[in-house]
Task: structure prediction
Amino acid sequence: MNSIHSCFKAQIGGVVLPGDVFRFNGSSVEEDSNIKAEKMVCGPGLRRNGDEILACKSGILRHKQPSMYWIDCQQKRYVPVKGESVIGIVTAKSGDIFKVDVGGSEQASLSYLAFEGATKRNRPNVQVGDLVYAQFIIANKDMEPELVCIDSCGRANGMGVFGAEGFLFKVSLGLARRLLSPQSEIVKDLEKIFPFEMVVGLNGRVWVKAKSIQQTLIVANLLESCENMTAQQRQALFKRVAEGAL
Amino acid sequence: MQFMQRGLDADVRKQLEEEEKRIINDEHWYLDMPELKAKESFIVEERSYVPCEDLVYGRMSFKGFNPEVEKLMVLMNAPNEEEDEETEEKDKTRMDTDITDEEMAIRYGSLVESMKRRFAKKRERTSQRNEDDNVNHNIGETQPKKVFLKPQD
Result:
């Protein structure tokens, strides 16, 4: 147990590549088993294979107390994960389900009953081409992913059809996560410029809306340019925009 | 007589039961495998970044652009926003508004009057009107309150 922690600790913050193995010998496990064995969580990018842990993505190894390890990587392809909230585009209506494009390998299905206040009699008003903010209730590699627009209590909580106006664009999954991280620097810098609204899906889709089309486009371009910029560069750019717009 | 017999003896009955049990056991199938030892795993796999990086709610609105979403943001990010309350209050003060404070004051000023008139009785209404007229003249002419006079015998 301790051995695997020490095995990870050496590499925290360092680059790992697919195929890297974190191994620990069984004897130490036997020793520790009489002490209370604490659970170890291996997050995205790490995979358990018997008694060893393999890296299956290239990126930076991250650690969170008490015992959570994952790989922070840059990728553009989204793989659905149960419980994650994404922005989808309705592509087809067929009988009692909608087909929704979420950017994964397969389109997700969304039942017409999975909306707040929907009944068999009272269908939600969803058209092909609408944007939905929804969360995965089924997502595994063998089955078609399924979305819902309600939580376990049947409330929408902001999910469902949105985005009558505004602008949708794609960013990398890493940037989407940076926007969603608590106390995100990008968001803090951006909200100083002018009032706007934003929806960020973990599938890398971002939707923004500001008071005018011009302002919407400014926000969208700023967000896109954040992909490859240092904090200083970003702050300088935002300052210039704020001065120019005012 | 046959029906008066005590039935079978105890040991004969036992023998029959055993035989029956053996037949059943022979017919049962079982897997010829070593006993599986369930090993408790202390490694949990997690496929989502949400618990790892403590990602926040995906809908956001700033400076009062969409008040509904701002309410939701507070609700959904509630557990980890205790220390942010001060900054939030500051945000509310600088929320931009369509209606200025003066407009609001004028509107409420007239609203108070019309509501007062609505809930007043007919008799009070006339007196109110008089009061309004008198405001500018400052004449302290107060009507005596009308009371029921008891008829004298």
User: Anything to note?
Assistant: Residues 231-245 of chain A form the longest helix (15 residues). The domain at 167-243 of chain A is CATH 3.30.1370.10 (Ribosomal Protein S8; Chain: A, domain 1). Residues 26-36 of chain A have pLDDT under 50 and may be disordered.
